[in-house]
Predict the 3D structure of the following.
Amino acid sequence: MEFVGYVVKIGKCYLTSIGNYTISDCLSEAYVFKVHESAKGIAKNFGGTVIYVYVSDKKI
């Protein structure tokens, strides 16, 4: 598994843009932060949580 970055989850939605703060219910559209502290700050402001995102190329 490879670590991709951090995503901010707000309720059942994910932050997709930090310029105008848009959200979507699709994880694949989520904005991926490379720095944990940046994601943590945004999540705190909006009452969300930080999700760690990993990918794998192995078939299940």
User: Anything to note?
Assistant: The two ends are 13 Å apart (CA to CA). Helices lie at 36-46. Residues 2-55 form one domain. The chain has a mean pLDDT of 93.
